[in-house]
Amino acid sequence: MAENESRYEFSDGISVVVNSECPTCQLTSSLLTDLGSSGHVTVFSQDDPSFPASAEWVRDDSDLAFSWHNDIEAVPTLVRVVDGKEVERLSGWNRKEWERLLELENLAPDLVDHKPGCGSLSVSPDRVDELEVKFGGKKFVSRRVEIASLEDEMEAMFDRGWSDGLPVVPPTEARVNRMLAGTSREPDDIVAVIPPNLAECSVEKVAINAVMAGCLPEYLPVVIACLEAICTDEFNMHGVLATTMGVGPIFVVSGPITERLDMNSGINALGHGNRANTTIGRAVQLVLRNIGGGKPGGIDRATLGHMGKLGFCFAEAPSPWENLSESFGFSPEQNTVTAFTGEGPRIIVDQKSRSPESLTRLLAEGLKSTISPRMVLAMDAMLVISPEHLSRFIDAGWSRAQFIERLSELLVIDSDEIIEGAGGIEDGIPSAFAGNKLPKFRPGGLLVVHAGGPAGLFSAIIGGWLNGAKGSDPVAKEIIL
Amino acid sequence: MNQTISVLDPTSEDHSPEIRLSDRIESIKGATIGLLDISKPRGDVFLDQLEKRFTEHGATVLRFMKPTFTKPAPVDLRYEIFSKCDAVIEALAD
């Protein structure tokens, strides 16, 4: 390393780093040629070794090694080195400054007095990650997989079984390096132990899968929080993955981060079209597949599944009501992810209710059939209330707690209607429960979230899966940036 | 674009040791067979039938049950089955 670095040291005298496409470098090119030919400077050219002239005093820095190692931020940059030590650095064109540094007079009198330079190629956003990997000694632990020049890299990744069925972004070192800038955590930190194979998953591995999913670096802390939430005993991701029931992890992101990441909590919130919503959920699923080994047809035994298993993540819309994560003890200023095991969303329509009581009654009727009209207490549900439906409650001054309380009163089922054999249906609760009134959901088993576009009298129900210690409980985690 | 690209492996890169199947029992007669109910409805219907048939063939049958079908069997239960039985049958349901 020391030997390599010494190759990138400036020698004594004055060096100038230039780039042929920079107008200021072009402006000074005749002057630089005079200074080079007369032995006053050595020029390092970032893009064209024949700029400003083809000469032995022009060095080729097209791999940007020299510029990167010397932290060149702009071109032209003049560097003065005395006895192996840099004593001064100037950037841009400024006649007086150049004259002082070069100890010369009357430099290029026909030029303007000064002109600022341009950004160095070594700090250009589309090059810097690649250079950091190449020269920065960035070490990845993951195996490098070489893809042949005649191979189509997109097909190669399908062939290796790394995809959920859609194309994935090739996780090159430069992209993964850029992704890692999204978190303050070290690449070798273990995020979680991923079922079903109970494989330890480092931040680096999460970043690789996040690149493949199409995430931006700033999404990475959310992906990490999602994994921390589901890889817990309470959430029981192993069971959620292995069950024949078509459910998967669903993530609700709450807090100011949703706006910063431009997440969608509005029109089509539960659908497609928003990069953050779509790729965060997808990255989690890719980790489950690639790190945990949970593949459909393998440990994932879902009879039917649902499209949300590609990734199901959305943002909670701000509202006068308390948000979902407040039910888990967080404050509205905290950024959180709440993970819930659920089916795909189904719409519940109420176009006519004007009073909160009427709408609550309609929603209760719909919720009674969640998962199975014959099932009580065993499964939770998420109710996503749209803005127009929410306004019925807000206008009437109902709080969230008041709404949930009234809903719970209405969600009581006469057990005689749902016991085995009732109505000619063999499925049902044991007949020993006859003559009772039973709540549809356990206390806290109904998660109420606000999201959706401003127009439309629709809400959505997302049925859950077996709850409690025998199944999966919702888990909320704070997002650590 | 005629050059190779290198990507980072997104998998766990763990290589589980290969585990050989246990030796098959040579005869049911005289063997102790464990029947593991995973706690799903009607799994017992299937296992009751198996118990009857195995007993008719001279095996001793021991019955076990997982606390929940949604999670792997606890290690103590697995060890108990391992130490008491010559073979085990795990009953799924649905």
Structure, explained:
- The complex is a heterodimer of chains A (481) and B (94).
- Chain A is α+β, with helices and mostly antiparallel strands and 481 residues long.
- Chain A has helices spanning 2-7, 23-27, 29-37, 65-69, 95-102, 125-135, 153-159, 173-180, 203-213, 220-230, 237-242, 257-260, 275-290, 356-368, 387-395, 400-410, and strands spanning 13-18, 41-45, 58-60, 74-75, 77-82, 85-91, 93-94, 114-115, 118-119, 144-147, 190-194, 199-202, 248-254, 313-315, 336-342, 346-349, 379-385, 412-414, 437-439, 446-450, 458-466, 475-478.
- Chain A has two domains: 2-124, Glutaredoxin (3-Layer(aba) Sandwich); 156-478, no CATH class.
- Chain A is built from 16 helices and 22 strands.
- In chain A, a hairpin with a 2-residue loop joins strand 5 and strand 6 (85-91).
- Chain A is elongated, with a radius of gyration of 31 Å.
- The two termini of chain A are 33 Å apart.
- The mean pLDDT of chain A is 94.
- Chain B has a domain at 32-91.
- The longest helix of chain B is centred in the middle third of the chain and has 14 residues, at 43-56.
- Chain B is elongated, with a radius of gyration of 20 Å.
- At the A-B interface, strand 10, strand 12, helix 9 and helix 11 of A face strand 1 of B.
- Strand 10 (144-147) of chain A pairs antiparallel with strand 1 of chain B, so a sheet runs across the interface.
